[in-house]
Specification:
Elements lengths: L8 E5 L3 E4 L7 E7 L2 E6 L1 H4 L4 H6 L1 E7 L4 E2 L13 E4 L3 E7 L3 H10 L2 H45 L9 H15 L10 H5 L3 H4 L7 H19 L3 H8 L3 H36 L7 H14 L5 H25 L7 H25 L15 H9 L3 H16 L8 H28 L4 H9 L9 H9 L10 E4 H9 L14 H10 L5 H9 L1 H21 L18 H4 L3 H12 L7 E8 L4 E9 L3 E9 L3 E4 L11 E8 L3 H21 L11 H10 L9 H13 L4 H14 L10 H10 L4 H7 L3 H29 L7 H11 L2
Parallel strand pairs: 9-12, 12-14
Antiparallel strand pairs: 1-8, 2-7, 3-6, 3-8, 4-5, 4-7, 10-11, 13-14
Helix pairs in contact: 4-5, 4-8, 4-9, 4-10, 11-12, 11-13, 12-13, 14-16, 15-16, 16-19, 16-22, 19-22, 20-21, 24-25, 25-28, 26-29, 29-31, 31-32
Length: about 850
Amino acid sequence: MSIKIDETGFLKIASDTVLFSEGEKIGNLLVITKGDVDVYISSRDLFGMEDQEEIIKHSCKLFKVPKNIIIGIGGYRDNSNYMFSLKSNIENEVYIVKTSNKDEIKNFFNKNKSYLTNMYHSISYLVLKFYEEYIKIRNINNELKIISTNLGVLFFNLNDKNKNIQSESFLKAKEIYDDATNSGVYIPHSFDADFVKANHNETYMHNKNLSEEDSEKKLNVEMDFIRRFLTMPKNIKDGFFTYDTNMSLSAANMMYDNLSYIIDLLKKEFVETMGNMLFLYSHDKESLFNEYSKKALELEKEGKDNEVWAKYTKYIGSEIKNFRKLIKEEYDFDLNIDEEEIDSMIEELEKTSERAEAENQKVKAIMGAEQIPEEIKNPAKKLIEMSSIDEERAKVLLKGLDEFKKLKDKFDTEDDARKIRRSVTNVFFEIYREVARRAIINGDKSKLVKMFLNYGYMDDELLTPNQIIDLYEVEDKTKSKRFNVFYIDEWLKKIYEKEELPSVNGFGQDYKEALREMKKRGMISDKEAEEHFESQSKRLEYEIDNMIQTTQRLCYGQVSVYFPILHSDMIIKDFDASLLKRDFIEKTFNSIMEVDFSAFYREVLYKNEELNITKELVMQEVLPNIILMPTYGSRAIMWEELSSRQKNSTGRFLFPIFTSEDLESLAIPTIGAFRWELCKTMLGPAWNDITQMSLTSEYSDYVQFYKKNRNLSDDSKEKLKIQIKKCRNNLREVFVSDYFIWIKYESKGIMRLNRVVRNILYRQVPFAKDIREEVAKQPMFADIANRFKNIRHKKATEIENRYFKFTKSGNPLPEELANHIDFYKNM
C-alpha cells in the first residue's frame, strides 16, 4: 500500500515501502532527502489492473531516483495521476509538501523560489531517464520483434497450407508472409539462424510507419536540449527560474507534457514486448514454440522428415530463455515462463530423433558403422597424412575438430564457438590445397579424395553412418547438353591444364592483376611473376586460395556459423534429394531462359575476310560455366561475368553441391546479377551515362532521381526508398530484387512493379516472344509492347537490308549473321 500523508514535513520511509502507485491521484509534492528510491512501471493498461498490490507485482523496475529530486509536479494539473510507481527498497527519508490543488503548489513555490530551479531540473532528469529506458526496451523489443516476425514468416513458408491458426499474431505473420512472397522476397526452406536474426522489415515492406523518422528526430532534439540544460551552471538556471513563478511553472508544465509522452511510448513498448514474448511462448495459447514443436511431433508420427522443425523448435526455446533472463536482469520482472516445459518438449524431440535413427538402423542393417567402407574411415587422419602439413598445424586441426564435436549447438554464435570453427577452417584449406594438388597432379581418383574435394567430407564422427553411406553412394549419372556443370575436382583439373584461367579473387583482380599487385608490394620478383603465371601448380594453388576458400563460405549461406566440413546439423534432406544434378540445373536455367531469352546474349565482334567484313557487331549467346562448391548450402553466387578480357568469354556461377533450397529461387538472382555486371563491363565508363540507353544507365537514373520522377506515385517513391535502404544503396541489388519479381511474377501478368521499372525492364530485359504477346493483352503492357515491337521490327529490317549485299550473289548468309537477324526478328 502507498504511504499516507497527513501533513507537510519530513517522513522516514521503511524498506520495501510503496510511496505511491501508478494510477493514483497526485496529492502532494515529494522531495527525496536521503538515499534513493526505485521507479517501477506496470502493464496495468494491458491487464486492466486497479489493485495497487497487483500493479506493483506486475511492474518492471527501471531506475533509481536520487535525493533532491522533486516528484509530483503533475499535481499542478487538474485530476492528474501518477504515471509510475515509486518504491523504497532500503530505509529512506523524504520531505512531503501536502497539496490539494494547483493554487497550493503555486503558493509553495512563491514562498520557496529556490525550489523552482530544482523542480524543472527534476522533471528534465526524469524525462531523460525515462527516454533512456524507452530506448533500452525498444532495442530489446526490436530484436524480439525481428526474431518473432521472421519465425512467423518461416512458419507459413514451411507450412503454407495451414488454415487453422487464428491468433492475431499468427494472422499478422501470415499477412506479412503473403505480402513478402507476392513481392518476390526469398524465404529459405532450410534452418537458417542468420535469416531469423536479420532485419527484413523493410524487405517485407509491411506496416511501415512513415512518421517514425520525423518523430525520432524531434525526440533527439529535445533530449539534446535536456542534456545541455542539466549541465548548465546552477547560477544561470537560478537567475532564470526564480525570476517569475508563473513562467517557471508553465515551463515545467510543458516539460511535463514531454514526460507524459515518453512514458506513454515506454509503456506501449513494454506492452508490445510482452505481446511478442507471448507470440514466442505461451503456456495455453497459440505460440511459435507450441506450433513449431507440434508440427515437429506430427511429422515424426507420420514417419516424415521433421529435422527443420525440430531445429527451429530448439532455437526458439533457446531464444525464449535468453529473453526471459535478459528481462529478469534488466527489470527484475519474471515473465512466468515454464522452462521445464520447454526443456521437456526439446528433450522429447531429441528422443524422437533418436528413435527415428534407431528405426532406420533396424530397417537398414547395412547402415551400421562397421559397414562404412574402409577407404573412407578415419578420413581426417588419412587426409592429414596425404597433405604432409606441419605436425603442429595438424594438432590444431584435430584439437579444433574435437572441440567442435563437443559443442551442443553447432550453430552457436558465441565467441568461443566462433574461435573453434575458425581454428578448423584455417587448417582445413591448407590440407585442401595439398590434397587437391596431389589429386590433380598425380591423378589420385580415390573415393576419399573425391568426397573430400567435392563434398567437404573430412570427419566420419560428424555424420551418422547412414549419412556417410548415402554420401559414399550418391552419384549424378545425368548429363547436361548445353551448360557446362563442373564438380570442383573437374574444375581444378581445367585450371591446372590451362584450359581455363584462374578466377578473379575477392578484390575482383584476375590472375595477372593479382601477380602485378604482388610484384608492386615486393612479395615476388618480375621473374617469379612470370613463372607463377606459367606454372600449372601455382595456378591451381591460386584458384583454391582465392576462389574456393572465399566462395565456399558464401555458398554455405550462413556466414556467422560457417564451417567448411560436412556435419549432420547442416543436413536438411538426404544427399540424393539435395544433390544438384546436372540435368536439373540445366532444366532450371532453361526454364528461366524461356522467360528471359536474352539473358546470356551480348554483342561480340564478327570478322569474315571472304566477305570483307572487318568489324561487325552481332548478338551471340555465351552460356556460363557452373561450378558446384563443396558444401551443403543455401546461396548461389555470380562470381564472374567474363573470364577474360574477351567479350565472348564465359561467366562463372557458383552453387552449393547440396541444397534444400528451391533452385529457381537461387538461380534467378544469380542471372540478374550477371546481367547487371555484364552490362557494366561491356559499356565500361559509360555504364551510367543516360545518353546511352542501357540497363545500367536507365536503372541508375531511375534510382538516383526517383524523388523528382513525376511518373512515380508517392507510395511508389516510399517503397523505392525502403528498397534502396534494404539493398544498402547498392544499385545492382535494387535491380536484382526487381528482376526476380519480373521473371517470377510480371511474366505471368501478376503486377508487382511500378510502371517506371516495368518500362525499363520491358526494354532492357524483354520477355520471350510468346510471353510478350500474352502480356500485351493487358492494359499495363499494351503501349510499351507496341513500341517495343515496332523498334524490334525496324532493327530487323535495317539489319536484313544491310546484309543483302552478302547474299545477292546467291551465297548463303553466314550462320553468325543469320542468328543476329533471327535475334531481332523471331525471338
